[in-house]
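Priority: medium. Attachment 1 of 2:
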């Protein structure tokens, strides 16, 4: 089934190619094959007298789209084509080729002059480009300033974060020192209190005996 479809497709293409319009470059001039349907379109190649071409588009603005045997497509002037191959004279062909090349050179010179005028100082195009360049320079300067400020802000933020961390560590150390000092003070008070209790107990036992001995000694005399 696939072979049948493929054969049918090939037949359709062959039938279409067989019925495609074939034109020939007239014997009164050579033609420029251009990339656009106008005289200022980019030049693709020069077609010599008698070259056969296949029409692939409708005429437009005096040009028609054609395809060469090698598959190259472009636009040529319709009035310089004919349906029958012309009789070619080598001398006439060389002369026509020379004229065609001279015309192409003139066209290229004109395009070059237009391009040079467009890039000449003080032209509207030059002023527009200068304005855009100045605008881009200002925007670039602003971006540099913004980037510099952003870096400074980021640096300040990092310094503040370091300072906060440092202060937090110092505060934690102070709390620890305060707790140690408080524990030491409480321990000292406990020691002093215990010592006072012991001294009180000692004095409670010793002083009565000393007083009794003194009284006994006085009674003896």
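Attachment 2 of 2:
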């Amino acid at each position: 089934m696939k072979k049948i479809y493929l054969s049918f497709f090939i037949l359709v293409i062959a039938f279409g190619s067989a019925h495609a319009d074939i034109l020939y470059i007239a014997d009164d001039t050579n033609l420029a094959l251009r990339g656009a349907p106008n005289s200022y379109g980019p030049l693709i190649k020069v077609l010599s007298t008698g070259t056969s071409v296949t029409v692939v588009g409708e005429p437009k603005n005096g040009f028609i789209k054609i395809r060469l045997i090698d598959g190259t497509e472009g636009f040529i002037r319709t009035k310089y084509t004919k349906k029958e191959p012309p009789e070619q004279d080598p001398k006439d062909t060389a002369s026509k080729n020379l004229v065609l090349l001279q015309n192409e050179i003139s066209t290229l010179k004109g395009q070059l002059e237009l391009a040079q005028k467009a890039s000449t100082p003080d032209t509207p195009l030059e002023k527009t480009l200068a304005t855009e360049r100045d605008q881009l320079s200002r925007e670039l300067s602003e971006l540099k300033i913004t980037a510099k400020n952003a870096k400074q802000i980021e640096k300040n933020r990092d310094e503040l974060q370091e300072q906060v961390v440092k202060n937090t560590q110092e505060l934690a150390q102070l709390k620890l020192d305060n707790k140690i000092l408080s524990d030491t003070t409480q321990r000292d008070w406990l020691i002093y209190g215990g010592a006072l209790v012991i001294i009180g107990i000692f004095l409670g036992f010793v002083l009565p005996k000393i007083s009794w001995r003194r009284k006994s000694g006085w009674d003896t005399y």
